[in-house]
Amino acid sequence: MIAYIHGKLAAGGTGWVVIDVQGIGYHIHVPLTTKLPGIGQEVKLHTHMAVREDGIQFYGFSGEEQRDCFLALLDVAGVGPKMALAVVSHLPPENLRLVIAGEDVNQLVKVPGVGKKTAQRILLELKDKLPGPVALSGETAASDGTVPQGQDEDAVVALLSLGYSQSEARDAVRKAQHKTPAADVPALIKAALKELAPIK
């Protein structure tokens, strides 16, 4: 396995780059959101090498976490490299983890090529493989059964990162807190996403 490719950017387009490594040009598929330097500048991508009957293809990512999300998606039945790349192009690692933790089908079906059944399968199969963000999952409920100060703000910020408006996020979190007062942040996000489901 080739863990990463480090060389000079020789060319690039929508969803692909060519990296020159000592005179050899590697054509690599990349997420649409990949930030790249100028032509001729050095670049390093963490890679996955897919061996197929018709040849070898490389997929490159700016960070290891994004590559790990891509690989986890490939383990889901019915998800191939093209779809996995589309998912990580539209959902950064932290957002993908939030979507999975909150079982938010609506966010996944926004990704081109992902239908409702596939989205549900992704949520089911990655629930344990891609847990919620560490910073959030470490929060716990207070001993008196109330949500500690700041957790509601963490939940609101998480919803904002998924594209919801300030008013939508705060209203959903408020309703979620009322229904599940002892919830920690991941549970609060999940409950809030259920409140938002009819909106999206």
TrEMBL record:
Protein name per Swiss-Prot or TrEMBL: Holliday junction branch migration complex subunit RuvA
Name of the gene encoding the protein in the UniProt record: ruvA
Keywords, ordered alphabetically: ATP-binding, Cytoplasm, DNA damage, DNA recombination, DNA repair, DNA-binding, Helicase, Hydrolase, Nucleotide-binding
Domain notes: Has three domains with a flexible linker between the domains II and III and assumes an 'L' shape. Domain III is highly mobile and contacts RuvB.
Cellular compartments per GO CC: cytoplasm; Holliday junction helicase complex; Holliday junction resolvase complex
Region (Domain III): 151-200
InterPro entries, sorted: DNA_helicase_Holl-junc_RuvA_I, Hlx-hairpin-Hlx_DNA-bd_motif, NA-bd_OB-fold, RuvA, RuvA_2-like, RuvA_C, RuvA_C_sf
Domain Helix-hairpin-helix DNA-binding motif class: 71-90, 106-125
Pfam families per record: HHH_5, RuvA_C, RuvA_N
Family indicated by similarity: Belongs to the RuvA family.
One example GO MF annotation: four-way junction helicase activity
Compartment(s) of residence: Cytoplasm
Organism for this UniProt entry: Desulforamulus profundi
Entry-linked CDD domains: UBA_RuvA_C (cd14332)
